[in-house]
Design brief:
- With 343 residues, this protein is mainly alpha-helical.
- It folds into 2 domains: 20-180, no CATH class; 202-339, no CATH class.
- It is built from 14 helices and 10 strands.
- A two-stranded antiparallel sheet has the order 1-2. Strands 3-4 form a two-stranded antiparallel ribbon. A two-stranded antiparallel sheet has the order 5-6.
- Helix 2 (26-36) runs parallel beside helix 8 and helix 4 packs across helix 11.
- The longest helix is centred in the middle third of the chain and has 18 residues, at 213-230.
């Protein structure tokens, strides 16, 4: 079969030499141009499923933006959120956005007879079948990875642009201009979620939803990240800060009014606490008054002479976030004192 024509994307011709040509495997590029423009897509009552092209464009974007540097795509807020953003920009049919479906089934697509996408489970876990829940997938997945030669093409800006253009022209020609303009502006689903979490003016909340597990997944993961960043991974009650060399914080991002009650992932409904303080706060042994001072319940026994006695926290002002505008909102603290705290 004759390979598709290779777009030049501004490459020089004739005797001129473009340095990008030395970094690009043109044979591999022809192979993946064919593979990615012939993805297996299920027929549905709304037309052929658009999920895989949206996912592949999303994976490309994360590499292009430098969000993914190594060939390891984790099921995190950036990946799922970018997928949902691209879905809103590209898909005009009534199909339902479903990140986990193409993430698993892309493994069945091949280039030159070999799969080019693989999922690696965490030690002790397996991914032998489709996992519908994004939370469950995130628990068992270590990472997804492309074949090495494809990932190398995505790291090259010229070949990545060629592949992206081919995907848009093949699957979303009518939405291509709108998609590229939206990406250039930097606005969209992820921008709106960030604005919501950081309590920016509500006029910007154009695409916020809470109706799917994937929407909640993105919001909750971004909430946790921003709480830890604003509190500098420091417990608001004890002042303890502990971050491993692998950039893992041992401080929790906590909802003041539980998410199950409020569905509120804004910074004002959050506070950073180390695990033992988190547990005491959730069980009503600790709370915070209107002056941001810790109050301690009388309904427990402890060794009060111990260095880590909870009662030593009484009347201590909390260690707040970097900016006062992100302090816990008074109404959230009032709710906690009235409904959770044991007086």
């Amino acid at each position: 079969m004759t390979p598709p024509l290779l777009p030049t994307c501004g490459l020089t011709t004739g005797n001129d030499t473009n340095p990008y040509l030395y970094e690009m495997d043109t044979a591999a590029l022809h192979t993946y141009l064919h593979a990615l423009t012939h993805l297996k897509r299920a027929p549905t009552r709304y037309g052929t499923a658009p999920h895989k092209p949206v996912l592949v464009l999303t994976l490309m974007e994360l590499v292009e933006k430098g969000t993914v540097i190594a060939n390891r795509f984790e099921a995190n807020a950036e990946l799922v959120g970018t997928f949902l953003e691209n879905w809103q920009l590209l898909v005009t049919t009534p199909h339902q956005a479903d990140f986990t479906q193409p993430f698993y089934y892309l493994q069945s697509d091949k280039a030159d007879g070999e799969p080019f996408w693989h999922l690696q489970a965490k030690p002790g876990s397996q991914i032998n079948s489709y996992i519908k829940s994004v939370n469950t997938l995130a628990e068992v997945l270590d990472y997804g990875e492309f074949r090495t030669d494809l990932f190398a093409l995505l790291q090259n800006s010229v070949s990545c642009t060629i592949l992206q253009t081919a995907l848009l022209d093949t699957y979303f020609p009518e939405q291509k201009a709108y998609f590229l303009a939206a990406k250039h502006s930097g606005e969209g689903y992820l921008h709106d979620v960030e604005a919501y979490i950081l309590q920016e003016p509500e006029a910007q909340y154009k695409t916020i939803r809470i109706d799917t597990e994937e929407d909640v997944f993105v919001r909750n993961r971004l909430f946790k990240r921003h709480i830890l960043r604003l509190y500098q991974s420091t417990c608001a009650f004890t002042g303890m800060r502990l971050v491993s060399r692998h950039d893992h914080s041992f401080v929790d991002a906590c909802h003041i009014v539980p998410f199950s009650v409020s569905h509120d992932d804004r910074i004002g409904n959050g506070i950073a606490l180390c695990p033992n303080m988190h547990r005491a706060f959730d069980r009503g042994l600790l709370s915070v008054d209107e002056d941001y001072r810790i109050i301690v319940s009388p309904h427990f026994t402890e060794d009060e002479a111990h260095d880590y006695s909870l009662r030593k926290l009484q009347n201590k002002r909390i260690n707040g976030p970097r900016s006062a505008e992100y302090l816990p909102q008074p109404d959230k603290l009032t709710w906690h004192r009235e409904h959770i705290f044991k007086r």
